[in-house]
Amino acid sequence: MTNLVHSVVSSQSTLPSDNTMVATVSATIYTDGVPAIAGVTVNWAVSSGGTIDQVTSTTDATGVATTGLKATSPAQIKVTATTGDDAKGKSAMVTASKPLTTPTVLNASEGDAYTLDQYDLKFGVTATIPFYTGAAAGQTITFNWDVVDQKQIMVTSDTTFPISVDVSNDMKPACLNDGNYEVYYDVVDAAGNDSYSASVILTVYQGGQSTPTLPAPTIPDVSEDPYINIQDANSGVEVDINYNGMTIGDLVTLYWSAFDKASNLITNACTTLPYTVTQDDISAGVVLVLDPSLFYPGQNNEGYEGSFDAYYTVNRAGLPAAILSYSTDALVDTIQP
User: Fold this and answer.
1) Cis peptide before 162 (omega within 30 of 0)
2) Residue 257 domain flag
3) Which residues constitute the domain of residue 114?
4) E-assigned strands of 53-175?
C-alpha cells in the first residue's frame, strides 16, 4: 500500500504576523488511489516566517491529518505535508502580513487585565475599530467577538474612523457570558484580498458586589444648585471620591452615564475614568475632572438637557471582586436660552 499526499489546504489564506491567530492546515492522504484509513502518519514542515504546532500527525477516518500554523513575521509561508511513501508531498501557501491596528473595548485595559465585570456590562460594552493603514471605500470589515458572533461593516466614502460597535445591543447576548474571548477584525478589499488585525484577549467576569457600600462621589458644581450648566461644563466638571481604607494601588473606576429628558442614554456623553490611587490621594481623596466635550454631544457640538448618574468601583489587590459605591445624580442643561 502506498500513501500519497493528495492535497494540502489552509483554513485561512492570510494571517497576521504577530503569532496570535491559528490557521488549520489539512492534508488529505490517499492510499492506492482512495482516501486513507485512520492512523497514517503525516510529516509537516514549514518555511521561515511561521511555526506549526505539530511536526507529525495522523489521519482521521476520512484520510485527513491536520496541524496548526501561526505567523511570526511578514512572509509567504509554505507548509508542506509528506509521508513515508511521498517524500516530495504537497504544500499550501499562506500570506503573513503586518497586523492591522488592534481594536479596543471600552473599560478593558492592561490595568485591569482586560477584564469586563458586571459594572462594565451595566455601563454598556462598546468596541472601537481604529483607522488602519490602507482603509478605503469598497472594503468590508468583519468585527469578530471570538467565534460567538461577528458584525460586518461596509466602508464607504462617507465612513469615518474610528468605527464603534455596540456589543451590548447589536451582538448576541452570549458575547458577554463569563469566559475568555479573542476579539479582532478582518478587512476584505474589492478584489477579495484580506488582512487581519492584531487581537486582544478579553475576560468577562461578572462577579462583584451588587450592594453599594462606599460613599457616593461628590460633584462640587451641584452642591449649591441641582444643575451642571454651561459655565460648569466649560470649566471642567470635578468629581471627588473619598472612602475609608483608601490604599495605594487601588484601581478606582468612575462610571458617568448621561440621559436626555426622556431618560434615554446619550452614549457619546457617557464615560468611564480609571485611576490608580497614589500616596498623595490618601489624605486628600481622588479628584477627577470630566472633559467639557461630554456636555456637548449633539451635532455641531450642541449641548443637552437631561441628567447624569455617577458611581465608582474599587478594585484592590487580594480582593476577588470590585467594591461598589452609591450613586450621585443631578440635572444637566448646557443649551443656551
Assistant:
1) yes
2) yes
3) 104-204
4) 56-58, 64-71, 75-83, 86-97, 104-105, 115-116, 126-129, 140-145, 149-154, 163-166
Vertex 128: Cα angle to 123 and 133 (nearest 5)? 170
Half-sphere exposure of 59 (CA within 13 A, CB side): 25
- Beta strands across the sheet bearing 41-46: 14-16, 86-97, 75-83, 41-46, 56-58
β-strand partners of 141: 153, 187
The verdict on residue 210 lying in a domain is no
SS3 state at 232? helix
Q: Where residue 166 sits, what CATH number does that domain have?
A: 2.60.40
The domain tally of the chain equals: 3
Work out the number of other CB atoms within 10 angstroms of the CB of residue 259.
18
Structural domain ending residue among the three candidates 144, 178, 204: 204
Q: DSSP class of residue 74? A: S
What cell was used for 188? 476584505
Residue type, 280: D
d(C-alpha 60, C-alpha 62), whole Å: 5
Residue 211 lies in a domain: no
Task: Report yes or no: 16 and 186 within 8 Å, Cβ to Cβ.
Answer: no
Q: CB–CB of 215/328 below 8 Å?
A: no
**Residues β-bridged to residue 164:** 128
Task: Measure CA 289 to chain center.
Answer: 26
User: For the CA atoms of the chain, what is the radius of gyration?
Assistant: 26
337 residues of the chain, pLDDT tens digit each? 899 999 999 999 999 999 989 999 999 999 999 999 999 999 999 999 999 999 999 999 999 999 999 999 999 999 999 999 999 999 999 999 999 999 999 888 887 789 898 888 888 899 999 999 999 999 999 999 999 999 999 999 999 999 999 999 999 999 999 899 999 999 999 999 999 999 999 999 887 666 889 999 999 999 888 999 999 999 999 999 999 999 999 999 999 999 999 988 898 899 999 999 999 999 899 999 999 999 999 888 899 999 999 999 998 877 767 888 999 999 999 999 8
pTM exceeds cut of 0.70: no
